[in-house]
Amino acid sequence: MRCGLFVSNVIDIDKDYETEPGGVYHIITCVQGSCTVESPEGAAGLACTESALVPASAGRYTVRGSCRVLQSYHPR
């Protein structure tokens, strides 16, 4: 979903999903299953309905697990 205020992607993950924030923060919300969000700055475990904020400065990050997440961010 895309609008002027935010973009929200639905991502189904079987094992690992790696991406980079590209200079904007990302909010990862686990909507099915559970996962771990890992970056050079640390890691956060998420159960269903929990969210984590990935700072723009985090660099590449990985979401690990068998899950469905929403990846939301402000478009530039």
Order of helices and strands: EEEEEEEE
Q: In terms of per-residue confidence, which ranges show pLDDT below 50 for 5 or more consecutive residues?
A: none
Distance between the termini: 15 Å
Q: Output mean pLDDT.
A: 93
Task: Indicate the percent of residues in helices.
Answer: under 10%
Structural class: mainly beta
User: How would you describe the shape?
Assistant: globular
Strand content: over 45%
Molecular structure report:
By secondary structure, the protein is an all-beta fold. The protein is built from no helices and eight strands. It has a four-stranded antiparallel β-sheet, with no helix packed on it. β4 and β5 form a beta hairpin. The protein is globular, with a radius of gyration of 11 Å. The two termini are 15 Å apart. The mean pLDDT is 93.
How is this structure best summarized?
The protein is mainly β and 76 residues long. The protein has strands at residues 7-13, 16-19, 26-33, 35-39, 42-46, 51-54, 61-64, 67-73.
List keywords for this structure.
globular, mainly beta, 4-stranded antiparallel β-sheet, 8 strands, 76 residues
Helix/strand layout:
Elements: E1 7-13, E2 16-19, E3 26-33, E4 35-39, E5 42-46, E6 51-54, E7 61-64, E8 67-73
